[in-house]
What does this fold into?
Amino acid sequence: MRPWILASLLVAGAVPALAQAPSPPPAAPPGTAKVDTIKALLDQETQVPAGGFSYNSQNRRDPFVSLQRPVAADQSARPRPKGLSGFLIQEVALKGIVKGAQGFTAMMLGPDGQSYFVKPSQRLFDGYVVSIDATTVGFRQEVTDPLSPVKTRDVKKSLYSSEEAR
It folds into this structure.
């Protein structure tokens, strides 16, 4: 630019107006609005509530719950009836077996401290009695694990604890 043009612009006041004019914001690259929305959503999900930690499982297994939790925790969805039909197989203890005219009868001790007499086909909460012989009681337990390929398993309880270890 020639100096006389610059001087005339300064006198007219055009240069200060040009210098103070706000520049337009730079154009955002395409997709930036989407990235900002995603960042805002992630910030909302990762904020820790005032009471402590919160885990959003999103239909996945909770890594903070033991895989070896007791069977009773899986059965808690159904209400348990009273008496022998409300006990899990793992909760009852075999105390004796009696032979009568109709066959063997087992005496089981429940978690409530009471004794119950059991015959084959007697129902418990998670299975039923399959067989009773002179020293053992056989149960068929229903497996509640949805990922297990087997739906039932056989459990034996013996009068003599040394036989159960075998």
